[in-house]
Amino acid sequence: MYCTVNDIVADITEKTLIELTDDSSVPENYNTGLIQAKIREASEYIDSYLVERYPLPIIDNSDLEILKGICVSLVVTELFRRRLGLDFSESLQRRRDEAIDNLDKIQRGIIKLRSGTQSIKPRYYRYTERQRNFPIDWNY
Q: Based on the number of CB atoms within 10 Å of its own CB, is 77 exposed (0-12), middle (13-18) or buried (19 or more)?
């Protein structure tokens, strides 16, 4: 897992975390089990992007710091989505989109992690222009 419950508490206030995770009528404590489940989901989601290019598990500390920020963003937005449904703020949506965009950049090799040698190449390649197989002035 790329982040911990303490990382989530550090990102949003404990009071907000209690409101997002405790489903009782009088919220008292945050639901650690729910938070860990969301962390596990986000970590698996991150792994699905990384497996194309990097050998798992990622062990380099600087890489783990990058992935921790992405994981925290995904978990926090999922907790807000759980409580508020699809009506959460535009800033939360931007935060989620930015995290997914960073994962996409890691997958494509624009953002490079130090883990591994990137010997695993992507299974597909993007190209912008196809080479012509016939001359331009060729007539039918």
A: buried
Cα three-residue angle 19-21-23, rounded to 5 degrees: 85
With tokens 């695993």, the residue in question is 120
Kindly report, residue by residue over 19-35, the tens digit of the pLDDT: 899 888 777 899 999 99
Token pair 């009528």 in the structure block, residue: 25
For the chain, the farthest-separated pair of C-alpha atoms sits apart, in whole angstroms, at 79
Mean pLDDT for the chain? 86
pLDDT tens per residue, range 84-128? 876 778 999 999 999 999 999 998 888 888 876 555 555 555 666
36-68 tens-digit pLDDT: 999 999 999 999 999 878 888 888 899 999 999
Q: Is residue 67 within 8 Å of residue 46, measured between CB atoms?
A: yes
Domain positions in the chain are 5-108
Separation CA 19–CA 42 (nearest Å): 20
The answer to whether 52 and 123 have CB atoms below 8 angstroms apart is yes
Q: What is the DSSP letter of 136?
A: T
